[in-house]
Amino acid sequence: MAGLTDCGTMSEHLDAYVARGEPLTAAQQAHLRDCETCQAHLLLLEALQGALLEDTPAAPPPPALREVILAAARPTAAGPTRRAPRRRWWPAALSAAAALTGALTFTGLLQSGSTASVLPDPAVVVSSGPDLLVASNDRLGTLTLLRAGQVRGSVTVGGAATPWFTEGLRLGGRVFLADAANDRVLELRVWPLQVLRQYAVPGGVAGLSADGSRVYFKSVRGVVGVLGGAQVTLAHEAEQALADVMDGVLLFGGQLFVTHHLSGEVCALDPDTLAVQRRLPLGGMPVALIPYEGDLLVLDVTGRLLRVSVTGEVRQRWAVPGHPDKFSVSGGAALLSDRAGTVTRVPLRGGAVTQMPLKHPMDVLAMPGGAFAVAEGRRGLRVLDSDLNTTVHVGQQGQALAARP
Question: What pLDDT does 381 receive?
């Protein structure tokens, strides 16, 4: 609409409208009437503000809390001519309040069937029994629990930086999510959906794996460790752009396997001592690992899928188009996601490699019956059958849309 640049600019006006009561202009109100995305964003902001008011503990807040929140809300001093993107004041204030008064959680802000924009930019999808947990790389850090294509619950986690979720895994009734942009791993209770704890991982998190009680990670800086426990430095690595944060961790056959995409190696570590037992030189840029019939499937972002023994013997290889960096296996087939705009199906027992275009696939998850769930960025979440036909598409409005190819 004339007079408005885009929805990103409008979101700042909505922030000010909800947070400080600043009125919207006639042009902004007209945009809001015609834009479903901004309407959904306003609903989410109002729900969040309501939760802040309703969930505040009854006990008087500490004296320091007022100054912390005011400091977070206060405009910064004038800086360089080129301004950095503005951050909302209330995620910072919320983090400060949680640190001083105990965890404030937003369980159930959006109830089942909600039409708010709870799938703004899906990046990671994790199976949790009958539910799917979807983590979005939006400025709020939206986490959404879906069942049968409908929203069951949603929370926002914020962060000093816009979250960049790289990996997720389930361990019993908990889910662990790696947020590389904020150097942390979040531990969540699945239902009711709630953030239980966060672990600091300096340098960002590239990969996660777990056994019955421990969660292992690999950091962007080359550190491998247990959340809340021992760590070792596998290699000294420099900071990377978020788009390049990729590596795999897999506990398999009594060993902890870790990809090192900068050196072209897969390293085998003792899971108790974290000592490196062997290095498997595969070349290329290996970034993800999955167990398969006693071997490892290793995805190489330069365009290879390898079947490798635990001793490093390459037993089978598939050439794949593009630069896929995530994959999952279901029904004897692997599905590879390439953020450039494709998913690739590789039949592991023989057959042709096939592809289909998707707008921005960020993650893929195997589901029962040979199906796959694909986190498709701003296009939402898509469920594909074994022939890559769309059976369910959950769009930005949190509703299951009609199936379409």
Answer: 93
Question: In which residue ranges of the chain is pLDDT below 70?
Answer: 1-6, 8, 19-21, 40, 43-118, 396-405
Q: How far is CA 381 from the centre of its chain?
A: 13
**Using one digit for the tens of pLDDT, what is the confidence trace for 293-334?**
999 999 999 999 999 999 999 999 999 999 999 999 998 999
The answer to whether the CB of 156 falls within 8 A of the CB of 126 is: no
The closest of 374, 375, 381, 384 to 396, measured between CA atoms, is 381
Domain ranges of the chain: 1-47, 323-405
CA distance 201 to 198: 10
Domain range 323-405, its CATH number among 2.40.10.480, 3.40.50.2000, 3.40.30.10, 3.40.630.30? 2.40.10.480
Please state the φ and ψ torsions of residue 80, each to the nearest 5 degrees: -65, 165
Q: Cα(321)–Cα(305) distance, rounded to whole angstroms?
A: 10
pLDDT in tens, 65-102: 555 445 544 444 444 333 333 333 344 444 444 333 33
> Going edge to edge, which strands form the sheet with 215-219?
205-210, 215-219, 223-226, 231-233
CA distances (Å), 154 to each of 40, 117, 364, 373, 380, in order?
A: 14, 10, 20, 19, 15
Instruction: Label residue 344 left, alpha or beta by phi (over 0 means left) and psi (-120 to 50 means alpha).
Output: beta
90 CB burial (10 A radius; 0-12, 13-18, 19+)? buried
Instruction: Write b or e for each residue in 320-345: b if 16 or more Cβ atoms lie within 10 A of its Cβ, otherwise e.
Output: bebbbbbbbbbbebbbbbbbeebbbb
Cα(63)–Cα(148) distance, integer angstroms: 46
Alpha helices in 55-157 (DSSP H): 63-73, 89-101
Phi first, then psi: give them for residue 97, nearest 5 degrees.
-65, -40
Under 8 Å between Cβ of 164 and 206: no
Q: Which residues contact 305 (CB under 8 A, 6 or more apart)?
A: 297, 298, 299, 317, 318, 320, 327, 334, 336, 346
Q: What is the per-residue pLDDT for 48? A: 62
CB 405 within 8 A of CB 368: no
